[in-house]
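Re-running the complex after MR caught last week's input typo. The corrected sequence lines follow. Everything else is unchanged.
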Amino acid sequence: MDRRHGECSRRQLLKAGLGTGLALGMPPVFARAATALAAEATANDRILVVLELSGGNDGLNTLVPYADDAYYRHRPTIGLRPPRVRKIDDRFGFSPGMAGFERLYKDGHLAVVHGCGYDNPSFSHFSSMAYWHTAAPNHGEEYGWVGRLADGLRPGGAPNFVVNIDTTQSLAVRSRDHTPVVFDDPERFSRKGFFQELPLFQHVTEAAEDPNPSRKYLLDVARSARDASALVREAWARYRSPVDYGIVPVDLPKVAALIAAGFPTRLYYAAYRHNVFDTHVHQGDLHGRLLTYVSDAVSGFLRDIERLGRADQVVMMIFSEFGRRVPENTSLGTDHGTANLVFVAGRPVRGGHYGRPPSLTQLVAGDNLVHTTDFRRVYASVIERWLGYTRTEALLRGRFEPLAMFG
Amino acid sequence: MANSVGSGPAQWIDDLSPIGPADWSEDRAAHLLERAGFGGTPEEVERLARMTPAAAVASLVAYQSIDNRHLRPFEHSGVHDRGLEPFPASRPAATDLAKATGQALGVRVKPDGNRRLQAVTNRFFYWLRASRLETNRVAYWWAERMLTTRRPLEEKMALFWHGHFATSEEKVRDYRKMLRQLELFQKHATGSFRDLLIGVARDPAMLAFLDAGVNVKGAPNENFAREIMELFTMGVGQYTEADIREAARAFTGWNFADLAFVVNREQHDDGEKTVLGRPGRFDGVGVIDIILAQPVTAEFVARKIYRFLVREELSPALGTRLGAVLRDHRYAVAPLLRTVFLSRDFYSPASYATRIKSPVELAVSTYKKLGLTEIPGVPDFNEATSALGQQLFRPPTVAGWAQGRSWITPGLLIERGNFARSVLFPDIAFIPPDRYPPDETIRLVSERIAQGLDVTSATRPGPGKAGEGEMAMSNVLADRDEDFNTRYASYRGWQMAIEKVKPIPRRTAPIDLSAMVRANRLRTTTDVVDYFARRFLRLPLEADARARLAGFLDTELGTSQVSEAETYMEDSLRMLLHLVMSAPEYQLG
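Corrected-run output:
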């Protein structure tokens, strides 16, 4: 295979893995996973990429309702004035740095879902994020919604079906049947060792019934690590892209690299980490910058996917655990709030506004928005209308009407 | 059953009654040392095993009389000066202040000419870098204490409180405050939780971290009040939003001035509040006492300590009993620790060798078990633990580090093996991160400046990857203010910081496994495998793994007799140890 060539279609990879991989001296694990990949090649190959904005993104200063006087009354100092926003219609405009989102919207590839939230909202990052991760507000739930979706799409589990790019595994991808591939830096996702040691590393004890649950967990992860690391590293080493993802690419080039390499992954999960959107104090400059990074990264990623010829296959969903309170606080920032925007982007998406924008004058619970769209309707939309999984009601523990944002 | 060695019977699960001298063993002493400290050498384990369990636990918990004067205080580099105070909240805040008043950070604005605010901006970045680098030295200092202290539980609990009252230097931006906070955790490590909680509420690092400065009468900021109830004391669902708003009023005016706690009387709301059903004109301490009077608080704190020291899963009934122990001793932590460490539950199969070590524990216990008395400079301690998901003084969020299984992902499990390798076979291309900025663009700027380029050209983003119009907004906007250039300031800030901050000594670990093998009179390769397993693992090796490792060493040495290979066995022994430390079981303590 030509190493300078960024693109490597699934078919090419199959050929390499099955036909010439061993001859080229590829590690046996590569060939083994490629076999699994071949079996799947005929199945549905649509991909969902979830991007989490941690810390509670201020939706009102992301897509500004610049025609609404109430917005400026609530935010006399941090409100973004009409001349500064990137207007997409006569009501809304994006934060100044979000040229990428503006273009996506105008190209018809960005769905904006307004007022997403749930009843009895939690103002705790951790609780609210857990509710979004599990799609189970105000309930305990062992597995994440992405993990349950993986269990539904591929019962029994399959290698490399779920990829979570982070240092720690997100609750969202926790699954009964799958061991998600979790890594941060692809270049470090490899075991270092002497040649003589390698055969011993390949050996991982099979421990179906280990009385020590921690040991069993470690052995499961060790197997997943052995099976995925060479593939991920290989994909990353081959990946070259001319696309500019901006200053903070939020791990999306890694997703693109795996897609380019024909990974069998259907569900990707990445995050803008460390609660960065928790803008209590002096938010203006910082928040604008964060949004610029997100906008650059997302639009860069979708251009890259376009370049790879896979734009019809990939949809992205972008969310945060809550929005901010409507009035600004006295420290030129905003406090934890409720309902928020969710974005769904990609060529298969029918762009536009979905859901009703919450009123800025009828506020509840300490100056907060009343949610107008249960966030699980967005989940239902991508699960049912994009990934084609129909037992959504069981998966989401209730009936949530999908939005008509595809096709 | 492999894992039952060392652990007691299953009936011991949830049983808080103490074990007796007949229940004591070397394995259990080693288990105790893992949890109440950072593991031990065979000699340290043996010493503990010779005592009764009660005496062994007491020797760890009642540590106040143990002489620890061999530990040196932190040696400051001298990077701070008074002109830096009060340090502005952000770069824009610093330059805005300079524009408005003609000076900031002790630097006056240039009266005329180009980039009039450059020196202010440089100094802003200087302190960010200097504080970060100095914080990394404080982390080294602390790690060395963990390794060499005679009171391991003190450092272990300080580590717990650091995760519980998670505060990050990334936001605090002052290593001195971080150091003071650590000293608070060490001082109250096993003492009164009330004293500690009040200390934290008045701690400048915490006050800075949770935006206390903006919590003022008439406009309370709820950040601190929320975290104190949700994360520090009661847990979510035990209070209402109204309780948070009222509690926030009680903490109004609590602030810091440099390193001191201050109450700004005119910003403090002295009016009547109602917190958790109790009305009164409370201040912060009043609210803390109301919180401590809630039964749920003792239970929440006791559970969290138990989950840190023993295991992730515990029954509600056990949680209630642990809470009662803490409450009955008026929030003194030591009696709770004594009860836990002596309990049958602590030595039950659910607890024994089931806990996944945190990265800091993994690193320190690795050094400890190797018999080292210094934290090696290569690999860099902070880089190594950070790659594994934990960097001291930089918890990821206010909730601290997720424990247990969260430490392990496929990527991180591999990284843990790589860490062991970097200790046993140090990287000869190692670049000390406290001397060379990790950011490539800084090095690029440095080269271009040296070539005589003007600041604008020198700081332009690297050779453009994308064509016109395709360049990301963030790259377009990066350098627009004519008053100063932030990329140059970042470069210059690094340069000034590196000049002032003392270097971390970069010695590699003095490891001599051959001497270890000789000293223990190990005769065959199987003896060596068994010895390494006993010294480094809490679970015995399975028969096939043991045979594989012995076979590996046979092949490497060309013999199964140690005496024949004595002069050349070091590299092979290190490989063997690397394999042992790469085993999933090595993560368990």
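None of the earlier attempt is carried over here. Residues 440-500 of chain B form one domain. Strands of chain B lie at 103-104, 107-108, 254-257, 260-263, 273-275, 278-280.
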